[in-house]
Design a protein that fits this description.
Layout: H1 3-14, H2 36-63, H3 65-71, H4 74-97, H5 104-130, H6 136-144, H7 148-155, H8 163-183, H9 190-226, H10 236-253, E1 257-264, H11 267-274, H12 276-293, E2 299-304, E3 307-313, H13 317-330, E4 343-349, H14 358-374, E5 379-381, E6 386-388, E7 396-398
Parallel strand pairs: 4-5
Antiparallel strand pairs: 1-3, 1-4, 2-3, 5-6, 6-7
The structure holds guanosine-5'-triphosphate (GTP).
Guanosine-5'-triphosphate binds at residues 230, 263-268, 271, 276, 279-280, 283, 305-306, 373, 377.
C-alpha cells in the first residue's frame, strides 16, 4: 500500500468503532477472510432477519389491497390485488423455506429472494400503473408505489454486511428504479427522476454505513465470545464449533484434518512453587509461541486449564508431525526455575484413524496424549510413531 493510501486507510479505520482493530478492518470491506465461525453466526442472523421481514411483508402486502380497491379503477386494483397476493405467497414461501442452520451462501440467496420479490413487484406494478392516467387521490395512491425501491434500500440497514455485500444487494434495487424510468422513457420527468435516483444512492450509502457498523460490532462480539481471555486462544465452546465445521469440510472435500492434544508437563508445580500468576504467564507465553508458529487456517484452542488443542486442517499426520517438530525447535517457553516447558502431545488424523465424528477423533488424540504421559512425558505420540525427547535436535521416531 502506498503511504498516502495507507494514511487514508488508517484515518478511516480510526473512525470505526473502537472495538475493531487494524487487522480486522479489512473484513468490513469484503467477506473474504472472515473466519468460518463468524460466517456461521452471520448466516444465522441474516436468515433470521430474512424470515422476519418475509413474514412481515407477507402479512402487510395484501392488506393494501383494500386501499387500492377503494381508490383505484376496478380493473387496475384487481390486477394489483393479484400481484400482491402472488408477492405475499412468495414471501411466505421464503419464510418457510429457510432455516437458521443455513450456510452464508444460502443466507445470501435468501436475501437475494427477499429483494427480488419486491423489485419484480415494483417493475410489474409500474407497468400496470403506466397504462392508466390517474388523477387526484388515485394518483397519490399510485405514486406510493414508486417508493418501494426506497423502502428496499433502507431495509438493507438491518443486515450485518460488508461493503462489497451491500453494493451487491443495492445495485439490483437501484437498477429496478432505472428500469422503471426506461419503461416510461418518453413521458418521464427526467430531472425529478435523477433527483429521486440520487436520493436512493444516498439512502444506500447510509444503509451501507449501518450494515458495516453492525458487522463491526458483530466482529468485536464474536472475537470476545470465541477467545479465552487469558491466552487469546479459542475458547473450548468455540473450539467445538470450529472442529464441527472443519470435520464437515474435511468430509466434503476429502481433505485431511489433524488434531493435536497438548498437555503441559508438571504444570501444577509452577503454580505451587511460584504462584498462580506466574502459572498464568507461562500459559500465555505458550499460547503466544504456538500461535506464532501456526499456519493461516490452523486453530489453537484452550481446551481446559493447561490443555490445548491444535486443529490443523488440510494437514496429514506426517505434515502435523513436521509442524510439531518445528514447534519443538522453537520451544514452548521457560519455567521460572530456568527449565524448559515441555508438553505431552497426542496426534490423530480423521481419515488415517478412520474417525466417524470429531468427538471420536478428539478421544483418540487425548488417549495418545495420555500414552505420552505414561511413557515418560515430553513426547509426541501419533498413529504409528512416538516421537520423544521433545527438545532434542533430531526427533527419535519409534513404532508403538
Ligand atoms: N495458573 C493457572 N493454573 C491453572 C489454570 N488452569 C488450571 N491450572 C492448574 O493446572 C494444574 C494442572 O495440574 P495437573 O492436572 O495435576 O497436571 P500437571 O501438574 O501438569 O501434571 P501432568 O499433566 O501429569 O504432567 C492445576 O494445578 C490447576 O490448578 C489457569 O488458568 N492458570
Amino acid at each position: 500500500m502506498s503511504s498516502l493510501s495507507s494514511q487514508l486507510w488508517h484515518k478511516l479505520v480510526g473512525m470505526l468503532p473502537g472495538e475493531i482493530n487494524d487487522s480486522e478492518a479489512g473484513w468490513l470491506l469484503s467477506p473474504q477472510g472472515h473466519m468460518p465461525l463468524m460466517n456461521g453466526r452471520r448466516a444465522r442472523i441474516i436468515v433470521n432477519r430474512v424470515r422476519l421481514v418475509a413474514c412481515l411483508f407477507g402479512v402487510l402486502t395484501p392488506l393494501w389491497i383494500v386501499v387500492d380497491l377503494l381508490a383505484l379503477p376496478w380493473r387496475l386494483s384487481l390486477q394489483l390485488a393479484v400481484l400482491r397476493l402472488i408477492a405475499s405467497a412468495a414471501f411466505f414461501l421464503l419464510y418457510r423455506h429457510y432455516r437458521a442452520s443455513a450456510t452464508l451462501m444460502q443466507a445470501w440467496a435468501g436475501m437475494a429472494c427477499l429483494f427480488a420479490i419486491p423489485s419484480l413487484f415494483y417493475v410489474i406494478s409500474h407497468l400496470l400503473l403506466l397504462n392508466h392516467n390517474l388523477e387526484g387521490i388515485s394518483a397519490a395512491i399510485g405514486t406510493g408505489y414508486a417508493f418501494l425501491p426506497f423502502v428496499l434500500l433502507a431495509g438493507l440497514a438491518i443486515f450485518p454486511l460488508s461493503l462489497a455485500e451491500c453494493i451487491g444487494f443495492a445495485v439490483p434495487a437501484l437498477s429496478a428504479h432505472l428500469l422503471g424510468g426506461m419503461l416510461e422513457w418518453t413521458t418521464v420527468d427526467w430531472p425529478s427522476f435523477w433527483g429521486s435516483f440520487w436520493l436512493q444512492v444516498l439512502i444506500a450509502g447510509v444503509s451501507a454505513l449501518a450494515c458495516t457498523s453492525q458487522l463491526a460490532f458483530m466482529i468485536a462480539l464474536v472475537q470476545q465470545a470465541v477467545r479465552d481471555p487469558l491466552t487469546g486462544a479459542f475458547s473450548r465452546r468455540s473450539g467445538e464449533e470450529v472442529l464441527e465445521l472443519q470435520a464437515t469440510l474435511a468430509l466434503r472435500c476429502q481433505s485431511p484434518l489433524c488434531v493435536a492434544f497438548i498437555d503441559i508437563d508438571h504444570f501444577k508445580s509452577i503454580n505451587d512453587k511460584f504462584g498462580h500468576h506466574v502459572g498464568d504467564q507461562a500459559l500465555k507465553g505458550l499460547a503466544e509461541r504456538v500461535g506464532g508458529e501456526l499456519r493461516k487456517g490452523d486453530v489453537l484452542v484452550r481446551w481446559g486449564g493447561e490443555e490445548f488443542l491444535l486443529l490443523l486442517p488440510n494437514t496429514t499426520s506426517a505434515q502435523a508431525m513436521r509442524a510439531l517438530a518445528r514447534l519443538r525447535r522453537c520451544g514452548l517457553g521457560m519455567r521460572p526455575d530456568g527449565e524448559p516447558i515441555t508438553a505431552s502431545i497426542g496426534v490423530a488424523e480423521w481419515f488415517e484413524d478412520g474417525s466417524y465424528d470429531w468427538r471420536q477423533l478428539l478421544k483418540l488424540a487425548d488417549a495418545r496424549m495420555y500414552q505420552a504421559k505414561q511413557n515418560g512425558r515430553n513426547r509426541l505420540v501419533g498413529r504409528n510413531v512416538e516421537h520423544h525427547a521433545w527438545l532434542e535436535e533430531e526427533p527419535l521416531l519409534q513404532s508403538v
